[in-house]
Amino acid sequence: MEMQKEKPKLAPGLAPPEKMYLKAERIQEQLQRLPKWSLRPDGSGIERVRQVDEPAKAKQFVSYVCRLSSLRRQPVTIDVGRKQVVVTLKGHPVRGCTGGLTDAVFDLAALIG
């Protein structure tokens, strides 16, 4: 007699975890519509380097990016240098889904510009 493996029981109304990351072709399509953004060398996220000439402009841009990130509930990493600000966006696990580059990451990138 074969024993069937039981599937884990989920609370009513919950779906099982999904993989929500985009395939390589879709990532390339998204990057074509966002020319200021590039794929990180390790493929873990996208980044944009913005040149700034004044600390006040860097502070204003960082504040803007942080507000958008918070509203969209997407993680952001910001590195501020003397003349540039590097913004890195990566996916993250949400509601049982595995992380990776998603449409939400690219939507935030489009808002940041």
CATH architecture: 2-Layer Sandwich
CATH superfamily: Transcriptional coactivator/pterin dehydratase
Intertermini distance: 61 Å
Structural class: alpha+beta
Q: For the largest sheet, list the strands in their spatial order.
A: 1-2-4-3
Poorly predicted runs = none
Strand content: 15-25%
Most strands sheet: 4 strands, antiparallel
* CATH C-level class: Alpha Beta
Number of domains: 1
The average pLDDT is 81
CATH topology: Gyrase A, domain 2
> What best-fitting shape do the alpha-carbon axes yield?
globular
Provide the helix percentage: 25-40%
Structure explained in plain terms:
This protein has helices at residues 24-33, 55-72, 103-112; strands at 38-39, 46-51, 76-80, 84-89. It is an alpha+beta fold and 113 residues long. The chain has a single domain, classed as Gyrase A, domain 2. Strands 1-2-4-3 form a four-stranded antiparallel β-sheet, with helices on one face. A hairpin with a 3-residue loop joins strand 3 (76-80) and strand 4. Helix 2 (55-72) packs antiparallel against helix 3. The longest helix has 18 residues, at 55-72. It is globular, with a radius of gyration of 18 Å. The protein starts with 23 loop residues before the first helix and ends with a helix.
